[in-house]
Predict the 3D structure of the following.
Amino acid sequence: METVATVAAAVSSIAAVAALGLVLLQLRNQGRQLKQMALTTLHEELLKPEMQKAIRSIYAATPQELAVPKNDEELERIESVLNQYDLIGSRTQCGVIPKDQTLATEWSIVLRLWHQLSLFIERETHLRGGGPYKSGFKWLVEMSEQYRLEHYPNSRTIPFARVYPGRDSRELLGE
């Protein structure tokens, strides 16, 4: 009788451990799915026409022109792009979205934006009296540069403006 009780207890223990393992596996898979959903949502935001237009307008200007926005519309375009990438950096840094996949798709855009907006960020930091400003974006820039050096060491990330026949690139800036 004791042997049956011992075997039953052992089987119950094994079943409990197996169930716990399945629960942990399910939680792990659910966490991955949530990260993928967050990344997909951010990419959907980045692909919206107004965001794409804002990014193109940043590429079309010089860093010096962007350092001091000429009007509220230009400031809004710059800040909408920076805010989005600052959010991506912050969420990636804390593990809400997958770092490797984010860097694989965004590294070159991030480095081009940094090239264009570093003077703006420096000026805004100074205007705000120092302290952190767009720290998620800055972290993402550092990670993007590391990614570039590791995967594409001979590449250069040069911003460019699309110029269409009969259309001045200044039209992208809303001028």
The two ends are 91 Å apart (CA to CA). The mean pLDDT is 84. Residues 5 and 11 are 10 Å apart (CA to CA).
